[in-house]
Design brief:
Largest sheet: 8 strands, mixed
Number of helices: 7
Helix content: 25-40%
Order of helices and strands: EHEEHEEEHHEEEEHHEH
Oligomer: single chain
CATH superfamily: Bira Bifunctional Protein, Domain 2
Shape: globular
Radius of gyration: 18 Å
CATH topology: BirA Bifunctional Protein, domain 2
Number of domains: 1
């Protein structure tokens, strides 16, 4: 079967809020038909994000202490509770239309878990699902998180995978609302470093295989120009 075309936008490393603003703008454009299928990839400066059902009580140290550690707190519109993002953790946000992949939100959520498991298997890391606890797990340690939002059938947010982040800040929260949940990384399991670009390439290949997309890489400027040009064309028609 011929694969469908989609865009792959790697933002590199940046603070969470401007990356979230880019996703928000492209997501709005996606919903309104201005932007085709696109996947956003990023690494963020240290930040705790709190989902719609989350609570600041799951952050275990005062805000002043977090500021001294250089960790932000941001509330977001994904599902789930609090989690930690940092350099060395790859975040992937597919802006899909569920009708294109013939899935409902629940099926899509669990396929993202399958995707994480498949990517890890390529690096000879055995992982799996854990009943009642979303994400990808290596035994009792969590290595990948999943949290999505869906509006009018269009998805945003997605999943994160711990390649080689500093794991210490995970001990400052109840990750995903779970007390004393152990967290691990690819580097910790393998005992050696893993090139981030190699992991990105594996994610792209597995996502293309699972969802039937062929990805074309674009820059941030390309994506925002596409959105701007479509908006300008619509304004000219009014």
């Amino acid at each position: 079967m011929k694969k469908r075309k989609a865009f792959w936008l790697d933002l590199g490393r940046m603070p969470y809020t401007p990356a979230f603003d880019i996703q928000t703008d492209l997501y709005a454009g996606r919903i309104h038909g201005q932007v085709p299928t696109i996947v956003i990839v990023q690494e963020n400066d240290p930040v705790f994000t709190i989902g719609r059902t989350g609570s600041r009580s799951n952050i275990l140290i005062p805000k002043e202490k977090l500021e001294s550690l250089g960790i932000e707190i941001v509330e977001v519109n994904r599902g789930g509770d609090v989690t930690y993002h940092a350099p060395g953790q790859i975040i992937v946000s597919p802006l899909f239309y569920l009708g294109d992949i013939d899935q409902n939100a629940n099926q899509y959520f669990h396929q993202l878990e399958d995707l994480l498991i498949s990517v890890l298997a390529r690096f000879e890391i055995a992982s799996g699902k854990k009943e009642g606890y979303p994400g990808a797990w290596c035994g009792e340690e969590k290595i990948g998180a999943v949290g999505i939002a869906v509006r009018h059938g269009y998805t945003c947010h997605g999943f994160s995978l711990n390649v080689n982040p500093d794991l210490y800040p995970f001990g400052l929260i109840n990750p995903c609302g779970v007390q004393q949940m152990p967290v691990t990384s690819m580097e910790k399991i393998l005992g050696c470093g893993v090139p981030g670009q190699m992991v990105r390439d594996a994610i792209k290949e597995e996502m293309g295989r699972m969802f039937g997309f062929e990805f074309q890489e674009i820059t941030q400027e390309d994506a925002l120009r596409m959105l701007k040009n479509t908006t300008a064309a619509e304004a000219a028609e009014c």
